[in-house]
Design brief:
With 101 residues, the protein is an alpha+beta fold. The protein has two domains: 2-58; 62-99, no CATH class. It has helices at residues 8-19, 38-50, 79-90; strands at 2-3, 23-27, 30-34. It has a three-stranded antiparallel beta sheet with strand order 1-3-2, with no helix packed on it. The chain is elongated, with a radius of gyration of 21 Å. It starts with a strand and ends in an 11-residue tail after the last helix.
Length: 101
Amino acid sequence: MLKRTEHFIQDLININDECGPVESKLTGFHKKLFTQSDEANHSLTKVLGTNDMGYFIIGPRSERPIEVVMRGLPRNINGAVLKKALVQKYEFVVGKVVRLT
C-alpha cells in the first residue's frame, strides 16, 4: 500500500515505467497496488524501497497460511488430540486449533 502525497500521480507513473503494469485501487489515505506475479511484486517492493516512497506491504497470498474449517467432528474431541493427529499422520504444519460453536 502506497501513501498518498502531493506528487502521488508522478510516483504511480514512475512505478508503471519501472515495474510494468501495476493496477491500483484507492482506499482512504493509501493506494493498494496489485501486480500480476510474485516476481513483479518483488520488483515493486524494490522500487518502492529505493525511491523512499511511503509504503507498507501485505504479504502475497502464496506466502500466507491457509485456514481450514472441519465440519462434522464430534463435540467431545480434544483440540490438542486433533492437532497432534494432523501433525503426526498427515505432516501438516498447524498453527492453532480453535473450536467454533
